[in-house]
Each structure stands twice: as C-alpha cells, then as structure tokens.
Amino acid sequence: MSKQFQFKLVLLGESAVGKSSLVLRFVKDQFDDYRESTIGAAFLTQTVNLEDGTTVKFEIWDTAGQERYKSLAPMYYRNANCAVVVYDITQSASLEKARNWIRELQRQADPSIVIALCGNKSDLAVRRQVSQEEAQKYAQEEGLMWAETSAKTGDGVADIFTRIAKKLPTMAPPASRSGPGRAGTSAGRTGVDLNKQQRSITSGDQCNC
Amino acid sequence: MAHWERDVQSLLRPSERLLLTLEGSYLQHDLEGDSETSLPISFGDTSLGSSSEETRVILAIVGHVDDAMGESGSVFLYTEVDAASKADHDYPLFLQHTFAIHTEFFLDISQLASPPHAHHLLGGSLEAMHLPPPHDTRFCVQLAEGKTIYTIVTNDMERLSSVASACRRLRDLASKISNNAEFHQWLEPYSLHPSSWLSVNPPRDLRHACQPVHSSLSLGYAGQPVNDTADYVVIRDDWLWSRSLSLATAQNASEKTQLRIRVGTFNVNGKLPTQDLSTWLGSVPPSSGTNHHEQKHSIPPLMEPSSHSLSDKGTGMEEGQASAPEADMLVVAFQEVDLSTEAFFNFTGSAREDAWTVAILAALGDKAKLYEKLVSKQLVGILLIILVKRDLQSRFTGITDSSVGAGFMGIMGNKGAVAVRVNYQPNPTSSSPSPLPIAFTFVNSHLAAFDDHIEHRNFDFHDITRRLEFGPCTEYVWAPRTKHREAEPRKLDIYSSDVLLWLVNLNYRLNLPDADVRHLLSSTPTSQGIHTLLQFDELKGCIRHSKAFAGFDEHSITFIPTYRFAANTESDAAGHDIKRKPAWTDRVLHKSSPFVPVSQRSYDAHPWITMSDHRPVSAEFLVDIPCIDSMALDLAANGLYKSFATFDPEDPEDPSGVPLLKLDKSALEFGKVSYSTPVSHSLNIRNAGKVPAAFRFFARDHRSLIHPLWLKIEPMAGFLLPGEEKTLQFTIFVSDTIAAPLNLGTQELFTLLIVHTLFGQDLFLSLDGEYVSTCFGTPLSVLARLPGPIRELGGAENLLPETQVDSSSSREFMKLMGWLTAHNVDAVHDLFIAPGDEALAAQIRESLDTGAELPAPTASQTVDANYARTVAAVLLAFLRSLPESVVPSSLHQQCAEITSRDEALEMLSAFPPESVNVWIPLTAFLHLLALRDHHQAEAPSERPDKRPTTPEDAQPPKPPSRAEILASIFAPVLLRDDIDAASPVSLLGKRQFLLFFMRES
Ligand SMILES: Nc1nc2c(ncn2[C@@H]2O[C@H](COP(=O)(O)OP(=O)(O)OP(=O)(O)O)[C@@H](O)[C@H]2O)c(=O)[nH]1
Ligand SMILES: [Mg+2]
C-alpha cells in the first residue's frame, strides 16, 4: 500500500494577483478571464500522485486578498502545513505585499510551515515589473521555494504544487485533519436522520505505516 | 422468522397490523411493456439454488382497520438490504412494492419441480389451489399490479397456503366496497421514504423545537469547522420539520380548535380536604371569590381581603369576568398529601387520593358531572389528578405515567416527581381527516426542602428531568436507524412533547433579607413590592442563567408569596409566618412547541383556602390545537425529503455538486447609529449552486464571539435548496452596558462576519456603522474628565488627566441639576414619577451631548410642569444608564448597615470624588422636595425606624411620605441592586442610607 498524506495549504497575496485562478487551474485545469474577487475563503481539495507512489492530498484554502479582510487571514493560515504566497510579475507593489505576508508567516504561523513564493501571470512577461533575479534572490535568502506560473496558460502550476508535495512528507509529519469537519461523531436526533449521519474518515487518517 | 416480523413491524405505521410474513427469494421483476410476453416466466438461466447472491424477499400481509370502511389489506414486498450497503442504510429492509388487495388483485402460485431447470406451472390461481406436499418442493408466487409483475420463490408451503387464504379473505372484503381508492388510502405513506413519516415520529424535543437551530450546532471557527457532517444534519432536519409542519398547517389555518386547561398546585401539608376548593379550580370565578368569606366559607379568612389587594385587582386577565369559561381539562397537583411514616414506605393505599378526588368533584358542583377522571398518579405525598370533559375523554389516548424520587431520602419518595403524558387527538375535519395528535406532558414535582445549596436543588431538577421516562410508547414508529439498533418501541422523556406544563413545589427562595421581604409585601401598592421582590427570586435567577428550568416560561406573578402561613404562630401584616421568610414556593411553568401556541390566561393564588401552610396556586391555559393532517405532513416531508435525499454533501458524485451560497451584498452600511435606538438592515443569501446547502455564522477563533454584543443576527443558520433565497436581518442596538467604549471611541461599530457554507466556502461580510456618542452609558469617572461636550471628544486620548477630576463632576449631570434647582419645581408633585415628554427628552439629551443650551421651555415665563417632569426624567434615565452605580457596589453593604446620620456623612469620604459630586447636590435637591410633602401634613418622622414591619407597628398602613417615595426610586439607582449577588444587600438599608441625607437632622 502506498503512502498517503494530507496537508493544509493556504494561498496568500494581494488582491487580483491570481490566487483563485491558480487554484482553479490546479484543481480543475480551467481558467476564467473574468473572475470575481474572493470575499471569503474557499475550500478545495486536490490530490497529487508522486513518482514513488506516494499520494499527497492538499486541503486548499484560497483566501481573500483585499486589504479589508486582512485581519481574517490568520484564521486560515494557522495550522497550515504550507503556504503559497503569490505576487503578480506585472505589479512590483504586489511583491512588496508578498514580502509582508512572508514576514507575517515567519512570525505567526507554524514554524515548520513550507512557504512557496509564486510569481504569477508569467504569460504577461512583456509587462514584467518584477525580474526573475530579484524574486529568486529574495526567495533564496529567506529559504523559500520559488517559481513563476501562469494560471492562464497553466505554465508551472502543476509543477510548483508537485514540488511542495515532494518537500512536505520528508520534513513534516502528516497533518491532523483540518479541513471542513467531515469527521467526528454526529448527534443523532429523533425523527429525521435521513441520510447517513456520519462516516468515519478513511483516506485522510491513513498514516505512513 | 421472528426477526423478520420484527423488522417488518418496525417499518409499519401504528395504524397497521402485520398479519403474516413469508420468506422467499427474489426471482424476477418484469416491468411494464414486455411483461405480457415474458409470461410464463422462464427460469432457464436463473439459479434457484441457495447461492449467496440471490436476494431474499419478505412478503408481508398487512391489515388496516378503518372505523368507517372496516378491514382492508395489502401485500407488502420487501427485499433485504444486502450486506455490503447495510452499514449505509437506515433500514434493514427495502419496501419494493405494495399490492392493494382489491377485486383486481392477482396472485398466482405454481409449483417448481426440482431440478430447478425443469419446471412446470401448476396453473393455479388463488381459488384453485391444492398443493402437493413434497418437502423440498419449491413454489413460485407471482404478484401483479397493472403491468408490474414480481415473481418469488419459496419452499415454505405451510405459510404460503395461509398467505393464499388471507388474501382470499381480504379480497372478499374488498369486493363489498365500492370505492377502492379510498379503501386503500392508508397505503399512500408507504410510497414515501419512511424517514419522511414525520407524523409517526414522537414530537421533536422541545429544547430543540423552541430554540434557534444554531444553538444546537458544534463549535466551529473560521478555517476550522469541527463537525460539518453532524451540523448539516441538524440544520437540515430542523428545516425539514418546520417547513413540513408549516406546509401541512397552512392548508387548514381556519380549522384550529382550542383546549382550555385549568391547572392547580397545592401543598396540603398532610391535611385532608376541609375547605371549598371551587375558586382554586375555577368553577367559581374569583371576582365572587373575593367576597367569599362573607358567603359560604366555613372557616373565616385569616385577614382582611385588602392585604391581598392583588386578587381583587384587575390583572388584565379574563378571570374578572362574571362566569369563568369551563376548562376542558383539569390538572390538579398536590404535594404532601400524606406525611405519615407508612406513606414514606409506600404502604398506603389510595384513601388520600380518593378524598382529594371527592373534594375536587365537590368543588366543581353542578359541573362535576361534565368531567371524568382521566388518570391519576401518586408517589408518596405527590399526587397528580387529571380530569377531562366527558365528551372529550375518548380523544385522549396513549396515556402513560412516570415517577421518580429525589433529594433527601430520595429513594423513599418523599421528594420527587410524578408525570403523565397523554396524546390529544383533534377532531377530524374534511381537509384534515387524520389530524396529528398533540402530546401533552404534565409534571408535578416537589423538590428538596432541606437543602441550603441552590446547586443541589438545581441538581434535583436535572436529575428528575433525566429520569422521568414514559413508555415504551407503541404509538410511534421506531424504525431502526442503523443495523445495530433494535427496532423496538422506546421510552420518551418529558421533552418529547408538544406542550409541557410543570407544576412545582420548590424551595427556591427570595434572595433578600427577611425584613426587606416583609416590608415590600406590606407597602402599598403591593404590586410594586411584588415586582421588586420577584427580581430576587431564586427560581427566576436560575431560569435567567439556564441553571434549571432553562427555557421555561412563567406568567408574571401578581400574588403575594404562597408560603408560609401558619394558623397558630405569629404572622406579619401580610399574614406570613414570622419565623419563615416568605417565598413563592408554588409555581406553574410551561414550554411549548412553536406549532402549538399556548397562552396563559390567569395565574393566581387563593388566599381564602387556608387549611395548609401553603396557599394553592392556579393557572389557566388556552392551547391552540393546530390542525395538521398526518398524511399531508408526511407528503410534505416526503416532497422536501426528495429534494435533498440524493445529495451526499460529503461525497458529491458530480464535482459541480459543491454547495455554493452567495450573499447579495458583501458590506452593510448602517450610517448613523444612536445609543439605545435599534437600527436594522438586511441582505439576502442565495443558493447559487446545484445542490442543497446549509450555512451558519462562525467566530474567528475560540476566544471570539460570533458577532459583537451590539449586533443581533437573525437567523444564524439555515438551509437552502438550489435557487432558494433567504433574508438575513442584522440589528445594531447599543445598550447601557456596552455603550461606554463606543462613546469614548475606543471601540467602533465595525465588524467582519464569517458566513460558513457547510462543506463549502466561508463568505465574509463587513458591517459598518457611525456611532453617535452620548454621555448616556458612560462612567461618571470618565464624564468628569471630558474637556467639553462628549461629541467633540475625538478619542479617549483627549480626556483630561485623572488628577484633574477631584473638583469637577459630570458637566451633563450639573446642567440638569442646575436647571432643576434654579426653578421652583418642588410643587410638581409627580417629579421623578411621571415620565415627561419623550420628544422634549430627546432634545434635552441631544443638548447634553452637543453642549448646546437646554431647549427653551414652551411657555416662556412660567415654569411648565411638563418641562420640569421631563428634565427630571432625563436626569433619572442618565443615572440609570451609568455602567457603574453612583455608589460603588463594594460599599453597598456598609452603607446599608449605617444607623445614624453622622455615620452616613462620614461614609461619603469613601466615595470616589465624581460620585460625591453627584451625591451631594442630588440629595440636597431631594431633601428640598421632601420638605414639600403632599401626602402628610406633618414633617416626616425624625427617627426613622429601620424595621417598620414588625407585626406590632405594622397596623394602620400610612401612606408613604414623599421622602420615602423618592428614596424608594433613587436608592436602587444610586446604589444599584445586583439581582444575581450571592449575598444580597438589604434594599431597606439602602433606602435608609439615602434617607439620612434627605431628612432634617
Ligand atoms: N493574464 C493572466 N491573467 C491572470 C492570471 N491569473 C489570474 N489572472 C487574472 O487576474 C485577475 C485576478 O485573478 P484572481 O484569481 O481573481 O485573483 P485573486 O488573487 O484570487 O484575487 P482576490 O480574490 O481579490 O484576492 C482575473 O481577471 C484573472 O483572470 C494569469 O496567469 N495570467
Ligand atoms: Mg480570489
């Protein structure tokens, strides 16, 4: 039986850098030219199969990038095993914001968190404001993974998530379940328990034994 | 075979009877179309051996007896749920089909020869059936309805022939009936999923039915839902119940009936009945009861009626009317009916019960013949007797009872509870031929008397609640929810009812010193004393803090405490025994489902029934019996059930099956919000996905509230089908207790709310208001440090340093005080009593906050009395709004113990400066008012008596002096009462302290 892992991943970054687009590409291999800005936090899952037979299931929280919701971000990155901090290569200000997020994660998040810095919209290289060298240098200094992606064309998207998946199991123990509570016992009620009321967790808790 | 029978039985409604079952294996099911051609069935390639793959079937003959149409029957065909999917299934059997046994009913039996591949049909129809007996012969049974044909194989010949003859008998019965459709109408619910048979479930737990659903959900926080699975089921089921009930009720809104229930509770102290109980039982209206002693009472009343001023006062309830309407149901609770030692050991018979029953019937007089005893239950001294109108008796069914001992010597049952549960069957109507029964539970309890610890008394309540059980209740369907659970009728607790009435004799006390209690009860008007006292009632406190009787309602009490009265001991002015602090020990509480509204029409004590040391208490309830048709309810539930049954939120088959909710706004702007003025806004939440979705509000983390205290959200959780929309209402209300940080600008009316979609995303909602600061609700210590009007403060950092406040006091207070002292207002006799003019009050409040001049009086020269009243009312409201009492609560006890004016003056040095600066001008002004006394010619008594209510000096009730009236108004404001305090401070002591400053030395 192959090893299975489950990790909580959070996406952070300024509004409109393409966080939701990256998730949509990764999970459904789709792209929308006109996406609504996220007002909340969306939860999705996607599984990555590694060459050695290991499967890694990501529980992904895509957060709102707008400044007014900044105070809620910690609720979503707490207990996260990995964070993808996204900037837009055509907006140098967005890299500044990414640096702030990284500083905050280093201070507040789980110390073992794996952080990837991701320069999105690489298809718009003609309008580039952030050079690869600058971003890569910063990532090296801080010990982060780094990649450029395009949610639009799909370039680099699967790659960065796979790199994260590879890095995770070797250094972090599998996460305890943290996704929307599908586990646990349910309070049976008289009358109308129409569907099954509970289901024990299967895949998630299978450990690396 | 027995276990099949039990399983089948569990899947039948109580109105049906299982006549026979037959086990077989499932062979073939020809659907319409080619069925004609496939007859006779070819068994060629069907294995008939006992291979493990074959599906077992149960054929059941089910009978139903209808009053009007007699017996009818049906064949039910069940298949066994296969082992693999059993774990996921609610029921062990799956109902494949029902065949109504009417004249067209078709059942064909033929023999299958072994070996199975060579077969011949015996060609037998129902009539011509003579079967050869070889032992392992197998038979083939064919059932057809229209073009649907089922074929079953069995080797149980014996049962098969019984099945055949039962079918024949039922078919003969059917042939005598012309209207077949109606004859078999009872089959309809079996086309539904059994889970949607709400009508045969016990009523919903009242604790859940009465509460908003969000209070039953798991704890969960942003990004960390704890248990979406269970929460989803809770929210969905709540929706299913209430939606089905309202769908089924709405159709019959005009057909509601009412049930009038008269209840009484009486601790008789071991006495046998010696007095007329008619006023208590409502057969004689209490308006004549007030003069009762002049007419026919054998025992003269202990005191003049005037000391019970409330019973002859109109309480706004219907009891004052000339003839009280007759109750449909009389529920009479006694405690301590038997104090004998024998009784403690449960050795006594029913002599006491009989005596009290006779007394009840005697009290009913002429009307006694209208009633019949429905049920009674006794546990040592605790007795519950229920009488109903004779013509309604047959409507009460499913009567069960229960009793438990509790407290000291609990096993022997001197304390404890008895309870009765009964279903009321409403009258069938044309639109509701089978109305849903309404379940009533009545509890009579006597809780521990000797225990000093309120926790122990609360424990008794919870213990009794847990242990009272009814049943097993066979009138409900107890389908097994999982394969592990037995499908046997279960027991029900007291909360599985639609209406719960609790008659209780308990030893909860008044949390005030004895002298206070007696003084308040002897003051006039008594209603005010009662009102004040009730705030300190322990039972009310426990309900308020959900420590016992949580969620129960009690009508407001207008009678004096019902305990303790003793014939041969000294009593106070109100007639209470001077050795025992009076208390409301006899109470009537209730709780009812939102679909069965209950209104209480009276709540009285009966002071002329003096035979015990308690006074009896009565209450009358009107219950709106909803007309909910069982069939309509089940059909409605099934319709709703189908709308979500195929969707499994944990495992959507279609990846687009992720719940998706949208808010039509992501921000709510409230604009200006003023103190103590509610402002509401709403938005819509819509299910924009393809599957049903549930939502709830989340807190950020375990340290946070879901929403700030100044906000209310309604509802906090809900369920939406695809395309459905719901309005959420948001109300901001800034009350006294939470205004201070907003007034100072240290807090803002801003919050981010999190709407969690179960199994889906969180939505954020920002909510913003512009708070208009005010001096109301701001501590005096802060007001004293304001550099100018509060509206111009612009942040707490602009407050003056604390060292500067010693000489200053609240500018706002001084403005009002200044106006009052500058005008000759002492002639306005109802100053601080009359409310004044609300519009003017609003202008005055505004001027305090903006620093503007007080608005000009309407009649310019003379002092308008109304203006004065309004200024006084604003002053009082200002003092009331202060988050901390003017005199810090730590000093209250000391103040209340002071016995001289000099000591009182000394006490001022312990006050904070800002309090002294309020206290001195205010009491000086009150002193001036007291000098101008409108009630008494002479000046108020120089040496105030600290205990004015000892029996000796209580005799001629003098009208209170103006000083006393003002002290009773201001003491609870300046030395604010803490109704939840463990050791209460005397209210009288506080008044006395204030009076030292108001009276001439
Ligand atoms: N050309 C190009 N456009 C992109 C790419 N990724 C995202 N976009 C566009 O950028 C806009 C913003 O993308 P989103 O995914 O909504 O951005 P976000 O980071 O989720 O923004 P918030 O939800 O407001 O925090 C959308 O119009 C996308 O179509 C990309 O790789 N290339
Ligand atoms: Mg987004």
Distance linking N and C termini of chain B: 97 Å
Q: Roughly what fraction of the amino acids of chain B lie in strands?
A: 15-25%
CA radius of gyration of chain B: 37 Å
- By CATH, the superfamily of chain A comes out as P-loop containing nucleotide triphosphate hydrolases
Mean pLDDT of chain B: 83
Report on this model:
The complex is a heterodimer of chains A (209) and B (1001). The termini of chain A are close together. Chain A has 209 residues and is an alpha/beta fold. Chain A is globular, with a radius of gyration of 18 Å. Chain A has one domain: P-loop containing nucleotide triphosphate hydrolases (Rossmann fold, 3-Layer(aba) Sandwich). In chain A, strand 2 and strand 3 form a beta hairpin. A six-stranded mixed beta sheet of chain A has the order 2-3-1-4-5-6, with helices on both faces. Chain A is built from five helices and six strands. By secondary structure, chain B is α+β, with helices and mostly antiparallel strands. Chain B folds into four domains: 190 residues, PH-domain like; 170 residues, Immunoglobulins (Immunoglobulin-like), CATH 2.60.40.10; 360 residues, 4-Layer Sandwich (Deoxyribonuclease I, Chain A), CATH 3.60.10.10; 219 residues, Orthogonal Bundle (Phosphatidylinositol 3-kinase, Chain A). In chain B, the strands form five sheets. A seven-stranded antiparallel beta sheet of chain B has the order 4-3-2-1-7-6-5. A six-stranded mixed beta sheet of chain B has the order 10-11-9-8-18-17, with no helix packed on it. At the A-B interface, strand 2 of A face helix 6, helix 16, strand 26 and strand 27 of B. Bound molecules: guanosine-5'-triphosphate and magnesium ion. Guanosine-5'-triphosphate binds next to helix 1 of chain A.
Please supply descriptive tags for the structure shown above.
heterodimer; A: about 210 residues; Rossmann fold; six-stranded mixed sheet; 5 helices; globular; B: about 1000 residues; alpha+beta; PH-domain like; Immunoglobulin-like; Deoxyribonuclease I, Chain A; 4 domains; seven-stranded antiparallel sheet; binds guanosine-5'-triphosphate; binds magnesium ion; prenylation (chain A); Small_GTP-bd (chain A); membrane (chain A); GTP-binding (chain A); protein transport (chain A)
